[in-house]
Design brief:
The chain has about 140 residues and is α+β, with helices and mostly antiparallel strands. It folds into two domains: about 45 residues, N-terminal domain of TfIIb (Single Sheet); about 90 residues, K homology (KH) domain (GMP Synthetase, Chain A, domain 3, 2-Layer Sandwich), CATH 3.30.300. It is built from three helices and six strands, in the order βββαββααβ. The strands form two sheets. The chain has a three-stranded antiparallel beta sheet with strand order 1-2-3, with no helix packed on it. It has a three-stranded mixed beta sheet with strand order 4-5-6, with helices on one face. A hairpin with a 2-residue loop joins β4 and β5. α1 crosses α2. The longest helix is centred in the middle third of the chain and has 23 residues. The chain is globular and about 45 Å long. The termini are far apart.
C-alpha cells in the first residue's frame, strides 16, 4: 500500500496518561473507565477508536451511496466499542449502529451498509480479528 496520509500520535503513561497528535490537534488526558477500576476522568482508547471508526464508516457509506446515486448524507453512524477479558488478555468487539435517512428503503440501505463495510479501512483492519455487528436503525 502507498499511504496517501499518515497520522501519528504519541501516548505517555498508557491508559492513565496523555495522548497528543503530531500536529497538536489532539491533546487529550487519558483515563481508565470506572467500569475497569479507574476514576473515569479523561478519554479512553475505546472512545477514540469508536470515534474514528464511526467517522470512517460514515465516509465509506457516503462513497458507496454516491456510486449508487443514493443520497445518504443525512446518515449517522454510532460505533460502540466494547472491551473485555479474553483468555489471559483482553479483546474488543464493535457494534456499528447506522441510522439511515428517512425514505430510504430497507433493502437498499442494508446493501449500502454492507458495501460500506467492505470498503471502510477500519472494517478491513478489523475483519477476522474482532467481531463487528452491523445494525441498521
Amino acid at each position: 500500500m502507498d499511504a496517501l496520509y499518515t497520522a501519528a500520535a504519541t501516548a505517555t503513561h498508557g491508559r492513565d496518561g496523555r495522548t497528543v497528535s503530531s500536529d497538536g490537534k489532539i491533546d487529550l488526558e487519558l483515563g481508565i473507565p470506572v467500569e475497569m477500576g479507574g476514576n473515569g476522568q479523561g478519554t479512553n482508547p475505546e472512545q477514540l477508536f469508536a470515534a474514528g471508526y464511526a467517522a470512517c464508516f460514515g465516509s465509506a457509506l457516503g462513497l458507496v451511496g454516491r456510486a449508487a446515486k443514493v443520497d445518504v448524507s443525512d446518515a449517522a453512524v454510532t460505533a460502540e466499542v466494547g472491551i473485555g477479558k479474553q483468555g489471559e488478555g483482553f479483546a474488543l468487539a464493535v457494534t456499528l449502529r447506522v441510522e439511515l435517512p428517512e425514505g430510504l428503503d430497507e433493502e437498499t440501505g442494508r446493501k449500502l451498509v454492507e458495501q460500506a463495510h467492505q470498503v471502510c479501512p477500519y472494517s478491513n483492519a478489523t475483519r477476522g480479528n474482532i467481531p463487528v455487528d452491523l445494525v441498521i436503525e
